[in-house]
Each structure stands twice: as structure tokens, then as C-alpha cells.
Amino acid sequence: MEATRFITVLAFVVATCAAACSSAEEAPAPAQRSPVPGDDTPAGDCAPANVPPAQCAGAHWSGRKALVSTPEDERIASVTPDGLVVAVVVPRPDVADAADVLVATRTSADEPFDVPVAVPGGPYAMTRAALSADGLQLVLVAPSRRSFVELVRGSRAESFVRGSGDAFAALDEHARLYKLEGEVYGDPILTPNGLTLYFARYGTEATKTIYATKREKLGDTWPLATPVEGVGIASALGKRKVPSGVSADERTLFFVDEATGRSASSTRRAEACGFDVPVDLGDRLYASPDATCASLWFTAPGAGGFDVFRESR
To answer: Average pLDDT in the 259-264 region?
Structure first.
């Protein structure tokens, strides 16, 4: 009996050691390499080799020029890729967390903008507004921050009117049914092709607050969104990353870091990759690039308080 028990125990010890030793000898999985814009080494499976540099990679901005200045503190909301239509938000002193949205137009990049004109239906949420590339659509956030508002016009010479908003039905219904679990919408961004909508969901301690949704063609309803991944855009300790612009190739995201009060950009190797370590942009708040990343539009202190500026690379 004692011999049988000894053999049983010995067999158990040998089996346990064999499993432990086998596990110890296995090489640990290599850490995924951080994506580097323009590098020819794949970052995991998110991008093919020999990816060309991102549009905004290595950009250095200079030659600051004031483009919109009013007695109020305006904040740039959006600019069309050709730089001829700009939308700004101006805080409403009589309504908390609310703003008027003003649009200014010019016929040439060499001319000054017309006097900014408030769009109808305000006030809106004190957050970013998104112009379409042709300047004929404006996406805003309702004062409740639980739905989007669409304004449209037939030409740049016409005034905006309330649109149907049908494209946002799924997002608005999601907010109504689930109340976003305490979250609210903010800061929409339309890509130049009109097929991707970036926006933020604020209000919780979640680190992922920037979302994106894609549609097949213009006019389609926006599907429910998914979080945008990346170490450089994660919120922390209640300090948000406020999205302000995205490059036409969707590989560089611009945002304001509430933790530092400064603007930054983060680039990813390809659309399927996560965004990498941010690059500090200093006082260029709410920065947004033009179609080719040749110019950067932003808000900064100026003669009229906070004004709208442009720099080139």
C-alpha cells in the first residue's frame, strides 16, 4: 500500500513539473511594435508593408495669420478643405454650455472673409460643429447633447435651413433608448469625402471617448459608432481628449488635451491601426487641417480675445 501511494505521488510530481517546465520554456509573445508613420515595418497585422507617409506626418507650422476676429471669443468649429467657408462657435453668456454658431464665406483664399452670420435655430451645444466639404451641410449638437442637428443650403450664397436629420436617426435613437449610460454627444467631424463621422461621447470615466462611424455612400444613415483606438487619444482621470480635426487620409487626428490645456495631434500607420504617441501643438487650440495638410486652422489669443488663425507648413 505504501509503495503504491509513493508511486502515485511521484507520478503527480513528475507530471506537475513537466507542465511547469514546458510552460517556463515557452518564449513570451513579442510586444507589438508602436506604429511609426511612413515606416516600412508592419505594425502587427494592421497595415501592409511600405505604407506611404501620412499626409500630416512631420508637419511644422508657421506664418500665423489672423483670419476671423470679432469682439467675442470665437472658437473655430470647422473649415472647408478649400479654406473658403469657416464655422465658429461663440459662447452664449445667458445660457450655460450653449453657443451660437456663425458661418463666414469668401470667394478666394486671397480675400478676407465676409462678416460671420449666425445660423438659425440656436443656441446649440458649446461644442464643435462640422461643415461638409462643399460647405452646404452643417452638423451640430443639440443643446441636450443627446442628438445631432443637420442644417443644409443649396449654395454657399444661400442661408442654412433645418435639414431632415434622417442620416442621424440611428445615433439619435441609440441616445434616446439607452441614454448613452450617462454620456452625451460632442464635437462632430466630417471627413472631406463625407463618408466618416467622428464625434465624442463624454460623461463617464471611460478612457475611450472618441468614436467613428462609416457609411457606404452620401445620404445613407450613419450606423452606430465604435471607439477609435490609440494610446495617444485615451482620456485619463476625467481629463478628456477633445477631437477638433482629422486629415483627409484619416491617419492624423487633432485634439485638445484637457489635462494640459494644449492642442496635439496623433498619427496612425493605417486606418486599421491605433493612434500613436501625440505631438504637442502648443496654443493652436481646436486645430483642423485643410485637404492636403498644407495649412492648419486653429484658435489662439489674438486682438479680439480668442480669434481664428491659419499657419502653413
So the answer is: 89
